[in-house]
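Run Proton-coupled amino acid transporter-like protein through structure prediction, thanks.
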Amino acid sequence: MRSSESSTGDIPLGLQGVQSHDRQPAHLAAGNGSVSAHHTQAEAVRRPKDIEADDYDPHEHQDVAHPTSNVDTLFHLLKGCIGTGILAMPEAFKFAGYVVGFVGTAIIGFICTLAVHMLIDAEYELSKRRRVPTLSYPQAGRAALEDGPPKLRWLSKYMSGLINTFVTANQMGACIAYILFVASNLKDVVDTLATPLSLRVWMIIVTVPLILLNWVRDLKYLAPFSTLAISITLGSFGVILYYVFRTIPVIDDKVAFGDISKFPLFFGTAMFSLEAMGVMIPLKNEMKNPKAFGGRFGVLNRAMVPIVVLFICLGLFGYLQFGDDVKASITLSLPQDDNWAKSVRIMMAFAMFVSHGLMNYVNFDTIWNKTLLPRCEDKKYSPKVIILYEYLVRTAIVLFHFTLGAIFTNLSLVISLVGAFCLSMIGLTFPAMIHMATFWYSCPSRRSFVWLLIQDSGVMLLGFVALVIGTYVSVSDIVKDFNSA
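Sure, done. The structure for Proton-coupled amino acid transporter-like protein is below.
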C-alpha cells in the first residue's frame, strides 16, 4: 500500500488544499501564522526543478542574431495567413451558410487563438523549469508529458514524433493544395486564349519548374522572390476585394444556414485558413521583446483580430457576391474574360508557386536533414553521393505532391481534408494536451484546476471530434468525386 506522503505527490496541487482542511500536517499547523496552510503545503509539494527555475527567465537568455520588432512580427503573422486558405473562405461560407459561416469563423478564430496562447504559455513554463531559452513545439510536447500525470508519462517518448508527423502531413497537404491552385488558375487563364488542356496536364507543366525551384539548397536565394510574392499577393487582394464589393450583393437567393452534413467541410477549410501553429513559437523566439507576443493586448491578439475580421469579410461578401457559383478559390470565380481578373490569377499563381518552395522546406528538413542524412553519414557515403541523394529526395518529394494532387484534383476537398485531419490536432488537441500536462501540478486552487480541466478538455475534445468527423466527411466526398470523374 502506498503511503500518504507518496500519494500526495501524484495529486494535482489545486486539489491538495481541499484535503488539508480535514487533515493538516502537524508541522504545518505549527508554522508561522502569517503564511497560510495551503501556501505552505503548496511550497512543500512543488518539484525541486520548479523551485530552481524561479529565478530563471527564458526570454532573457534568448540569443537572436537579428531580432524582430513587434511590428515586424505582427506583419509576419498577417502575411502568413494570406494564402490559398483565405481564398477558399467564400466556398466555406457556401458550405455553412452566411449566418453560420459568420458566427463559426469568429468562434474558430477565438479557439485557435486560445490554443496558441496555451502552447506559448506552456512552452515558456517548460523552458523555465528546464532552464533553457526555448523549446520547439515537439520538444514542448515531450517535456509536458514528462511533467504531467504519471499514468501518461509513458507517452512522452512518442509525443515529439507524433507532432512532427502531423506537422509534416500538414505541410505535405499544403504543398499539394498549392500545386492544384497554381495549375487551376493558369488553366483558367490559358483556356480562354488557346486550346484547353486538362488540369492534370497543367499540373505536369507546373511540377517541372517546381522541381527546379526545390533544388535551391539555400533559402536565402529564395528570399527576394518571397518578398516579391508577398507584394504581388497584397496587390492582388486589392483587385479581388474590388470584385467582391463592386456591386451590392443580394441575399434573397443565398443560404443562411447550410446543410449540417457540409459543416465539417466548412470547419476544415476554416482551420486550414486560420491555423498557423507551427510558426508561432519560432516567431515569438525571434522577437526582440518576446514577452510582448502573448497577453491580452499582445502581438498575437492584435494580429488575430484583423485576420479573423478579414477572413469573415472575404468569406461572407465573397459568397454573397458569387453565390452557389463560387469556386474552391475565389480567383476562379472572377470574370473569365476580364483582363484584371486574368492578371490576378496569374499573379496569385506565381505567388503560390514561390511559396511552395518555402512551404516544402519543412518536409525536406524532416525527411532529409533529420532522418536520411544522418543515416548516409553513418554509412560514410562520399560527399558527392550524399549530394546526389539529396537532389533525388528533393525531386521525390515534389513528385509525391504531384502524384497525390493528380489523383485527388478537387482543391476544396484537399483543403478541408488537411484542415480536418492535421490542423485539428496540431492546432487544437496537442496544444490543449500540452497545456494541461504542463500545469497539472501548478494550479494554486481547486477552482483554477477545475477551470484547467474544463477549458483544456473542451479544446482537446473539439479537436478530436473535428479530426474524426471532418476527415470522414472529406474522405467520403473525395471518394465520390474520384468515382464520378
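The chain is about 70% helix and 0% strand.
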